[in-house]
Amino acid sequence: MADEKDDLQDETAEEPAKKGGSKKLLIIIVAAGIVLGAGGFAGYKLLAGKKGGEDVQQEKVDANTSIFALAPFVLNLSDHGRYLKVTIQFEVSDESFLDMVEAKNPQLRDTIITLVSSKSLTSIASPEGKFQLKDELLFRANQVMGVNKDVFKNLYFTEFVMQ
Fold first, then answer.
1. Which of 6, 130, 155, 129 is nearest to 69 (CA)?
2. What does the pLDDT look like over 100-121, one tens digit per residue?
3. Are 151 and 97 in contact (CB under 8 A)?
C-alpha cells in the first residue's frame, strides 16, 4: 500500500510539470505563427503592389501586339544523331499582320527548319548560341514576310530540348 501511495504521488507531481511545458510550447508556436503570418502578409502586399503597376503599364505599351505560336518542331541537327525539339512563339508588332502571318505559315516553318537543322549542337548549346539563333530566326522570319516594316518584334523559345 505504501508503494502505491508513492507511485500515485510521483504521477501527480509529474503532471503539472508536463502541463507547464506544453503551455510554453503552445505560446511559442502561436507567437511564431503570428510573426510569420504578419511577415508573409507584408511581403505579399509589397510585391503585389509593385507587380500590379508594372502589368498595367506593360499592357498600355504593348496593347497592339500579340503572340503567334507555331506548332513544335522536332529537327535533326547537323551533328549526326543529334535532335532538337523547339517550340517558338513570335511577338507580332501589329495585330493587323496576323492574317498575313497565318497565310505565310508554311514559308515561315520552312525557313526555321532550314536554318535550325544547319546548326550543330555545340553552336546552340550555350546561352550566347541561343541568342544568336534567335537573332537569325527573327531576321529571316521578317524577310519571309516581305514587308518593309518588321512584322515580328521578338521571338520566344517556350520549349528547347536537345538530345
1. 155
2. 999 999 999 999 999 999 999 9
3. yes
